[in-house]
Design a protein that fits this description.
Blueprint: H1 8-14, E1 21-25, H2 37-46, E2 52-56, E3 82-87, E4 100-104, H3 106-115, H4 123-134, H5 136-159, E5 163-165, E6 171-175, H6 181-190, E7 196-198, E8 203-210, H7 214-232
Parallel strand pairs: 1-2, 2-3
Antiparallel strand pairs: 3-4, 5-6, 6-8, 7-8
Pyridoxal-5'-phosphate binds near residues 29 and 87.
Length: about 230
């Protein structure tokens, strides 16, 4: 990683004859940074054909309409080593149904189709996924809420001199710099607000916060302001 984002140059430099698969999420989790289509395309051009590139696009829908992000699926004919995975768990709100999909060259999909467990997605989940794909109104509403509220997080951070890592997902990562993020998370928990510290990634001062409804976000802003005030005293 470089500046909290996948370091494509370093990944290219690390490829050797034993490299079978390169896999990463774009946008990334748990930080939410993203590689633009231009940079991703140039990267794919340089990866050897024998190495599979798996791009996990779980948060892809949150950037629809942003000119920096094309539909990666358009590149499948050009890059036979490209695999794109997506999910209905995020923008479509169907996490409980456990359904997602993969886009790749027929040579790859036919192998995985033979390897996958039979009946790995149930009929109800498939019906819901098809309906979700047709429900443009719901997706637009979700993405619109997320885009608008993400800006409010950036404004909140600016106002309180906090550093928010630019996010392209439905969550934000805020760096509290001088403060222990776990202690803040603990206080938030007692106020009924659940956020995620990133100790497992050795990021002691960063919290990952899911973007909610305007009301939920207001509550988060108010609680953090109270905590910061207490900490400064
Ligand atoms: C990058 C990424 N990929 C995949 C998933 C999970 O997707 P699913 O619910 O389809 O297993 C997540 C969810 O946290 C994620 O962050």
């Amino acid at each position: 990683m470089k500046n909290y984002c996948a370091d494509l140059e370093a990944i290219l430099a690390a490829i050797d004859s034993r490299t079978r698969i390169i896999a990463f999420a774009n946008p990334s989790n748990p930080i939410g940074t993203a590689i633009s289509s231009k940079d991703m395309y140039n990267f794919l051009k340089k990866v050897p054909k024998e190495t599979l590139v798996v791009i996990d696009e779980a948060y892809n829908e949150f950037n629809r309409g942003d000119d920096s992000f094309e539909d990666t699926a358009k590149w499948l004919d050009e890059f036979e080593n490209l695999i794109v995975s997506r999910t209905f768990s995020k923008a479509y709100g169907l996490a409980g149904l456990r359904v997602g999909y993969m886009l790749a060259n027929p040579e790859i999909t036919s192998i995985l189709n033979r390897l996958r467990a039979p009946f790995n997605v149930n009929i109800a989940a498939l019906a819901a996924a098809c309906a979700a794909l047709d429900d443009k109104e719901f997706l637009d509403k979700t993405v619109e809420n997320n885009t608008r509220e993400r800006v409010r997080y950036a404004e909140f951070c600016k106002k309180n001199s906090l550093f928010m890592i630019p996010s392209f997902a439905n969550f934000v990562a805020i760096d509290f710099k001088d403060y222990d993020a776990s202690a803040i998370a603990d206080r938030l928990l007692h106020m009924g607000v659940i956020v995620r510290p990133l100790l497992g990634y050795k990021l002691k001062t960063i919290l990952r916060i899911s973007i909610g409804t305007p009301h939920e976000n207001d509550r988060f802003f108010k609680c953090v302001e109270t905590i910061l005030k207490d900490m400064k005293n």
